[in-house]
Design goal:
mainly beta; Immunoglobulin-like; six-stranded mixed beta sheet; globular; binds CU-O-CU linkage; binds copper (II) ion; L-ascorbate oxidase; metal-binding
Length: 553
Amino acid sequence: GAVRHRIRFNVEYMYREPDCHEHVVMGINGQFPGPTITAEAGDTLEILLTNKLSTEGTVIHWHGIRQYGTPWADGTAAISQCAIAPGETFNYTFTVDRPGTYFYHGHFGMQRAAGLYGSLIVNLPKGKKEPFHYDGEFNLLLSDWWHKSTHSQEVGLSSMPFRWINEPQSLLINGRGQYNCSLAASLIKTSLPQCKFRGNEQCAPQILHVDPNKTYRIRIASTTSLASLNLAIGDHKLVVVEADGNYVKPFIVDDIDIYSGESYSVLLTTNQDPKKNYWISVGVRGRPPNTPQGLTILNYKTISASVFPTSPPPITPQWDDYNRSKAFTYKILALKGTEQPPQHYDRRLFLLNTQNLVDGYTKWAINNVSLALPTTPYLGSIRFNVNGAFDPKSPPDNFSMDYDILKPPLNPNAKIGSGVYMFQFNQVVDVILQNANVMKGKNSEIHPWHLHGHDFWILGYGDGKFKQGDDSKFNLKNPPLRNTAVIFPHGWTALRFKADNPGVWAFHCHIEPHLHMGMGVIFAEAVQNVTSTIPRDAFACGILKKFLNKEHN
Ligand code: C2O
Ligand code: CU
């Protein structure tokens, strides 16, 4: 039967050597990444989160968990709750209703990039079987790491002139990476004094020990701040079987692309020479790479784990080979038996993604509005009907059809806003995410969009500008059900979801600096239908502080 897990999380800053260089990281209970939570579908998690940071608030978002009936536990500062003040404890209680590979992370300021994350694995209830077989499993949580503090990154992003964060110094696999130590170069038998692992260093790679001729499930999730990644295992094929907690039609690949906010399960069969070890490599795609590969080893237990692989690490596909990225992404389709999308929509939003200026500051905007979060969480202000907490006018449902997405904007100015898209209960909503050219030069970036509180069906992708009639090619038969979808440079992505979860949900680019620069929107769904009691400390801030004293004592 369903179990209730009581978990204590103390969020704190600590010294750590994630990539062999000492840095301050955000950790939980003295661990970085935070502890892995393992539960079974149907279980309830009760997480008592204490903020042990001395000078800033915090919250944690449970990425991929839909929070049916508990929208106040979504862990988004200024959206579902007030930031938890230093010294205070917040109780997140929610049900994990569906098996899958998930993770959790900070959702305030740039705390995710500071290291506030961990894995959340939901297994099938006992007695139930996955639609695929495996003998063992591993979990890889991928992230990117900077030597510049997130405080200084944040100040740079909000400064004039603008200072970009640049590329990460290291890629981390389960919080471990090697800066300035080419692990791979060791195979050329040069001695590399800067990387001498005895195995107990905080940055020593976590090795995957396997038996020959077995099948392993490898869970892979990306919580990168910026980097789009590609993962490969030397000489081995991967079979993709799960994406964002949903089963997909299995397909075989040499490597997978994974964008921030996504998760996958792949099956690996250990059918190669058992007298060798193999590299597992993670590299950057979608931006001119300036970060060495993240590496670890697949060790056949038949030999010692300290034997270096004889073949070089897999080469990450060229960063701007977008046709290759698209080919991978288009292969992801729902497994038979997955819930199909409604055949019609009630409302369709066209959201143009642009890089902008607001009073000279560099921002990202959606339909020319750059999101700035209010001081009172939306869930509280909408539920209790108080005016003045956010812009009362909804942002636009579409953008000018003569906007040229292939060129820098003629007028790059945008405005700051905190307005909300309001949906009625059970409305079927389509979102066409339209990518565009950046402010300078001919360029357009990748943006992985993540929706809280839901999965959506990805109905289609296309190059250029979405045109009338493009929806006749939508896949309504077996579109993948996911919570994160990428938009490719100068292209569009079409999503459909049902507004069946009363609450207020963020929908945003999962690249942390982009979100910080305003790249998101807020969806409010039938908030008057939120029946569960919202804990008072979830909304007792901003203008609701006073309201509370008046009406809620
Ligand atoms: Cu994983 Cu709103 O994010
Ligand atoms: Cu983005």
